[in-house]
Amino acid sequence: MALPLEDNKNDAASPADDSRIKGNLPPKVKHMLDSVLHELMARPNVFGAAIGERIDITEASIVPKVEESSRSEARVVCEVTVAEDMLNPEGSLHGGCAAFLIDACTTLVFLAAARCAGVSATMNIVYHAPAAPGAKLRIVNSAIAMGARIMSARSEIWDDTAKRLCVTGVHIKMEPSAPKQKQKL
């Protein structure tokens, strides 16, 4: 997929106002992240599109690593409100929906840090507490490591309404190699 790195503010499919995104990344990068998120979710038959189009990026930054201040990491914060189409039969945020949110939002971290989205290799998820319908979720994502082929990020899904941590996850992606040419027999 080609990433929209050019500033296409006049494009009708582009998000309306990237200035709402806080953080120290350049406006062009914030616009690219917002555009990629909304272009991916604008396809009507894509899994999770109705949920994904409601995700709002609120912050995109490069910040010093807490453990090693001489190094930096990408951080992207998103928000979404728990709606009926996100619930499990018990009436709280579905685990599969939480995994989808982690996948979508950590991908933005990879784009912010390395301008590549990669493909998922693994996701490890821990469910801590339920999130009720109407809860405002804050999804805090940060890069762990960005290698030549392997990238990893962590994600925390917070229920801002109840002030508690609901889900944590680690997402590992890789940059796939080019397809090999088949030999003619």
TrEMBL record:
Residues 91-163 form the Thioesterase domain. The keyword Hydrolase applies. Residues 1-10 have a biased composition (Basic and acidic residues). Keywords: Hydrolase. The keyword Hydrolase applies. One of its GO terms (molecular function) is fatty acyl-CoA hydrolase activity. Belongs to the thioesterase PaaI family. This is HotDog domain-containing protein. The lineage of its organism: Eukaryota, Fungi, Dikarya, Basidiomycota, Agaricomycotina.
